[in-house]
Design a protein that fits this description.
2 copies of one chain form a homodimer. The first copy, chain A, is mostly helical. Chain A has helices at residues 3-21, 28-34, 39-45, 49-74, 78-91, 93-99, 102-109, 116-138, 145-166, 170-185. Chain A has a domain at 62-205: Tetracycline Repressor, domain 2 (Orthogonal Bundle). Chain B binds a DNA duplex through residues 2-3, 6, 27-29, 37-44, 47-49.
Chain lengths: 206, 206
Amino acid sequence: MTTINKRDRLIESAALLFHHNGLNATSLADIAKHADIPIGNVYYYFKTKEELAMAAVAKRKEQFSAGYALLEEHIDDPRLRLIESVYYFEKVRDEYTKYGCPIGKIIVDADVEKDHVVQMAAQVFAEFIAWAERQFRQLGHSTDARRYATFIMAGVQGAAIMAKATRNPEVISNEIQRLVSWIENLPNRKIQLGKVAMKDMSTEAA
Amino acid sequence: MTTINKRDRLIESAALLFHHNGLNATSLADIAKHADIPIGNVYYYFKTKEELAMAAVAKRKEQFSAGYALLEEHIDDPRLRLIESVYYFEKVRDEYTKYGCPIGKIIVDADVEKDHVVQMAAQVFAEFIAWAERQFRQLGHSTDARRYATFIMAGVQGAAIMAKATRNPEVISNEIQRLVSWIENLPNRKIQLGKVAMKDMSTEAA
DNA sequence: GTCTATAAAACGATAGAC
DNA sequence: GTCTATCGTTTTATAGAC
């Protein structure tokens, strides 16, 4: 099929421009120009702008899902899986400082109750929380699992905003450090059930 | 002066609509209609949309500055001042869950390097960090003061995003709880200089 | 100072030739 | 499948009467 190429090019250009300039500020003309496709032809692949935006966010969602699958496949310890998932954001640190998080940007932008694109972006977060929650459960933190999972993504999102506001990528590195230290020092309740002396959510590394 | 009323009405309507619907999605016609002022008359008070947006953000900035002044005036202990500043977000919890943080929204939306409105929004954050930094310094945490101050605002911003994404206001309450517990358990290094046994950034309350 | 009418540009989307 | 030309709407912004 020859059509797949142009369709994918549109999705990739859309995802990039939405990330860099925002959903509202990016016009279909911008996307078409970036993908080197005439404006009129865009509507052959996507009937509306919303449909293209949905495809772009769906692609991000699949990329993250593939990431979780890779972590499950290569790392046995759920604690190390969580740590590795947090370290991912060190790789995109400078990009997030300049443009913010591509998913967070969409969540912030519009109404979660009305906008379909925002709902799909929210699902990306929901999927991470569900995944991280399972890891915390495996470490024996069933009652706090959901709250802990949310803490991680909230930490990353907050750091991304403050990094952008202060134009300082180290804000993200600091937050990653804090989260990793916290996860490292979390007790494994599945094994040592008697000891309750914990020192969690620590700022400082050991 | 009779002109001050309409000008202020425009700024208030703009601030509200920018918060609820975003900067890009809010048209001058929307603002004029909300303030009950004909569109053409808007341009008598503000030459461009950017000028009106600047005035709206400047007003938010002044409100926050007034808040810091009030804290300094009524609370002696810098630790309690910090705690009180965090508890503020409990009051706006439901609003933030629906619409996000009015300042964070602007930061996320556009380019910090080019957009003047975003730069002013960034100054609101910078002002909080500078204020919180001074409080941490007074507690003897000079070297970590700036990092700690950034942690607070990052925590709030991240919680606001996750609360909106999951439509769950408790995410913000949880984060406030975490931050307050952390501040409460921070050692006062100005007084007890010898003891280094600290247990900071704790998730759980005592 | 206030308001109507309208210009000028950008945008999402469509029609229809190829 | 591809592309040009263009419609209809919305948006920022201005001109000019009152």
